[in-house]
Amino acid sequence: MKARGLLPLVFVAATLTWVGSASALSISFLEPLSPTGNIAVSVVDLTAGGVISTSPELASLVVGTVTTSSTVLARVGLTQPGSGHLEGGGAGLSDLLTLRTFSSLTGAPVGFQVSFQSDSETGIPNPGGLTATIVETGLEQLLLSGTFSLPVVGLVDLTVTGRSDLEAVPEPATLLLFGTTMTGLGLAARWRRRRQS
Question: What is the rounded CA–CA span in Å between residue 110 and residue 66?
């Protein structure tokens, strides 16, 4: 085949790649160390605009219109290390990420929401239908990644990261220092009692 015959094929392949490509959207939810601080939300590459709302226990990004009719596209539960989660309900989730779309009365898609709910230290009841369960590390970690068809923005390569308020676990060196101090105080008290008798 001559080089002239390849030119139309290259043009068609480039056009299909451009038409089929998705835009990118990156969202980050970061819980503060302070229990009274609001969850921080940052959004990159959102051209459609959106409304961000935050509080100490809930943060969300809404694009388009919110209606009573919604469909959950993804639901990711976060758990504390070693706790697992309870299927079918009950406490156990420490955080919950939800991606949902909204539709009008006629069924036309009109908006979407990405929300991050944090527990109030009592656990979040498991709503069921989890896409994934992730164990918290206390660092920012990938919560959701994939290509979604979202109202208002179209086909999107969505990446959601988050950092949860992992309860602090003492380091082994800290525990050793604490234990040594307590043993020393106990021995000193015992030595004083013996000396006084």
Answer: 8
Measuring CA to CA, which residue among 98, 87, 95 is closest to residue 167? 95
2 falls in which pLDDT band (50, 70, 90)? very low
- Closest of 162, 13, 167, 149 to residue 76, by C-alpha: 162
Strand, coil or helix: 122: coil
Whole-prediction pTM: 0.71
Instruction: Answer left, alpha or beta for residue 99, where phi above 0 means left and psi between -120 and 50 means alpha.
Output: beta
Tokens for 125, please give them: 């009841």
- Amino acid at site 10: V
Phi and psi angles of residue 108, each rounded to the nearest 5 degrees, phi first:
-75, 135
pLDDT at 87 over 60: no
Angle at 77 between CA 139 and CA 95, to 5 degrees: 60
With pLDDT > 90 as the criterion, what percentage of the chain qualifies? 50
Nearest CA-CA partner of 162 in 74, 46, 51, 77: 77
Residue 77 near residue 109, CB atoms below 8 Å? no
Residue 139 · residue 161 · CB < 8 Å:
no
Determine the 3-state secondary structure of 196 from DSSP: helix
Q: How far apart are CA 197 and CA 193, in angstroms?
A: 6
Question: Do residues 162 and 140 lie in contact, with contact meaning Cβ atoms separated by under 8 Å?
Answer: yes
| pLDDT, tens digit, 9 for 90 and up, residues 109-132 | 999 999 999 987 678 888 889 999
